[in-house]
Amino acid sequence: MARSWLYALLLTQAVEAPIYLRALAHRPLRERLPLALLPSAFTHPLLWFALFPALHPELGYWATVAIGEGSVVLVEAALLASFLPGPGGQAPWRSALRPALLWAAFANGASVLVGFASSWLFGVP
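RE: above sequence
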């Protein structure tokens, strides 16, 4: 299970980090790279080791995926919003939330699709 999780985390980072790098283009690269890795590094273990095992037995696979990914988008958007500029280049959290939600939905949608494709093509994760 740990090997599958590590593969899934690396695949998730490979897909999501470049998207978050683009979202954070207003920041210097030395700041962007760790910030781009942060959302998935925070949410992936929580989803994999806590949320999925807790919900899957009761709700089944697809409902758990929908609830889990929806939750991840919200958490990652909240993290990202704290690093995005608002109007006038400032970083007011509330004005950055909408773009952060769009970036997080795009990043997670892409990684879910790549994860499903990997599972279908290669049997992992």
